[in-house]
Design a protein that fits this description.
Blueprint lengths: L1 E6 L2 E5 L4 H7 L3 E6 L4 H7 L7 H8 L6 E5 L2 E11 L5 E11 L2 E6 L8 H17 L7 H36 L5 H33 L10 H68 L7 H24 L4
Parallel strand pairs: 3-7
Antiparallel strand pairs: 1-2, 1-3, 4-5, 5-6, 6-7
Helix pairs in contact: 4-5, 5-6, 5-7, 6-7, 7-8
Length: 327
């Protein structure tokens, strides 16, 4: 785990044993970033931050929904970020935070083994780099938390942007009729729609969590309320963008399916016409064929009459099908 002491003069990396003294001094901010929660982290940090047992439990398990718990002097927030995996699967990368007076505790995971470990750490590392360079000068733990989540929302926007590029390409292929394997093409469209649905769900659920946080007056200092409202707006915007793009893709899918079904219907009608036209010929031939064409000789006049009748019947049926608009 990484322990950082953040002051106006910069960032100093310290040891876990220094946390109680730094919190008691009230100088600067203490930020502890835990890549993976384990027994060692639990033993070192539970007493240092006086963590609630439920918070310790949440750190060690995979939470499938975003979560908010308000304690007398701290907040527990659980959120997820989308990460695209193989076959269009969307991983939910978890980030847990405890925000307290003068400190921030961030815990990553647990994450799916298919997700690279650095994926979970990229947002916190980016914010730490901004603080070290002086581009970000936080004065409260909410400032750091807001910066981390804002970095996460930018990645979610990029996620939606990538999916939107896929939607445009799929729409182009549908209108240009440039696809070879209809089953595979439809599968591509459904996988892209799944990605948009996943990111919309994550953003909408997280917006609800932050909206609830705005109603807990004692949980957020007055000077940080605008940060919470900003995050609500960010997640609502992402949910709206993903939802609108999903609806647009659904329209493309419906257009594709309607055109495909129309082609199949026309083909079925033409096959039905062919069956209707050939059925009388087959019936007449089955009755007269063996009597008109035999091994020893063929009766020419009856054969000619039968063929003429077959042609007349077929021509009449084709004319009738044409009048009905079937062909």
């Amino acid at each position: 785990m990484d322990v950082h002491h953040i002051t106006p003069d910069g960032v100093v990396d310290v040891a876990v044993d220094d946390i109680p003294a730094l919190l008691s001094s009230g100088e600067g901010l203490v930020w502890v970033d835990v890549p993976a929660w384990d027994d060692e982290a639990a033993a070192a940090l539970t007493a240092a931050f006086d963590l609630h047992p439920l918070a310790v439990h949440d750190f060690g398990v995979r939470n499938r929904l975003p979560k908010l718990h308000s304690y007398p002097d701290a907040l527990l927030l659980v959120l997820h970020a989308p990460e695209r995996g193989r076959g269009g699967h969307v991983h939910h990368v978890e980030l847990d935070r405890v925000i307290g007076p003068g400190y921030l505790l961030t815990v990553h995971g647990p994450v799916n083994p298919a997700v690279a470990p650095e994926v979970a750490l990229r947002d916190t590392r980016e914010v730490l780099g901004r603080i070290r360079s002086g581009r970000l000068r936080p004065t409260t733990a909410f400032d750091i938390s807001h910066a981390i989540v804002s970095t996460l929302t930018r990645r979610m926007e990029a996620f939606v942007e990538d999916l939107t590029a896929e939607v445009w390409e799929l729409e182009r292929r549908v209108t240009a009729d440039s696809y070879d394997n209809p089953e595979k093409f439809l599968d591509e469209m459904f996988r892209t729609r799944h990605g948009l649905l996943a990111v919309r769900t994550i953003a909408a659920q997280t917006a609800e969590i932050y909206r609830r946080l705005t109603g807990i007056s004692r949980a957020v200092p007055d000077g940080s309320r605008h940060l919470v409202a900003d995050l609500v707006d960010q997640f609502e915007r992402i949910a709206g963008l993903a939802g609108e793009e999903r609806d647009y893709l659904q329209g493309v899918i419906e257009f594709y399916r309607a055109r495909t079904e129309t082609k199949m219907t026309i083909a079925a009608e033409r096959l039905a016409v062919i069956a209707v036209v050939t059925l009388p010929i087959t019936a007449l031939a089955s009755v007269l064929g063996m009597n008109l064409i035999v091994n020893d000789h063929t009766t020419g006049v009856p054969l000619a009459v039968a063929l003429a009748v077959m042609l007349a019947m077929s021509g009449g049926l084709l004319w009738w099908a044409k009048r009905q608009g079937w062909w």
